[in-house]
Amino acid sequence: MMLSTFTTLRRVTQALRMASAFVVLAVMLITGYDVLMRYVFAQPLEWSITISMVGLVAIVMLTVPDLEAEDGHIGMDLFYRGFGPRQTAIADVITLVATFVFCGVSGTAAALTSVHFLTAGMRTAGTFNMPIWIGYALVALGLLLAAVMTLLRFILKRQGGDDA
Fold it and tell me: Which of 27, 57, 69, 132 has the highest local Cβ count within 10 Å?
């Protein structure tokens, strides 16, 4: 059951990571076009900065759950390499708890904030008004999915499924 849940969610995280790659391409094209319009034709795009800011959030938040699922995030193992089996297990549990709590609490806060901005109808300032809740929803999605993947990966690793 855990392995099938992990596998299904892993497909979702991989799809989100691919979506992130398309967002990278879109942000690069928008930025390039904006630079051309701004400095060559003196007609900057009103919407490029807002879209690029949300795009940067999307790039990170759509990638984080997949990096967590494959244990591909940045790690610090200066001391970890020298630990014995018991110390390694303790360090793994501490890391799991810290990651899960951070992602869970921050993701929940982002989700609540997103709902607040959605119900309040708040939008960005300026001539291009975009709903504020979108950025917070991306943060919530990324962090909450990362929390779930952290927990599932840890459980599977402890059950002997190191392929997870």
Answer: 69
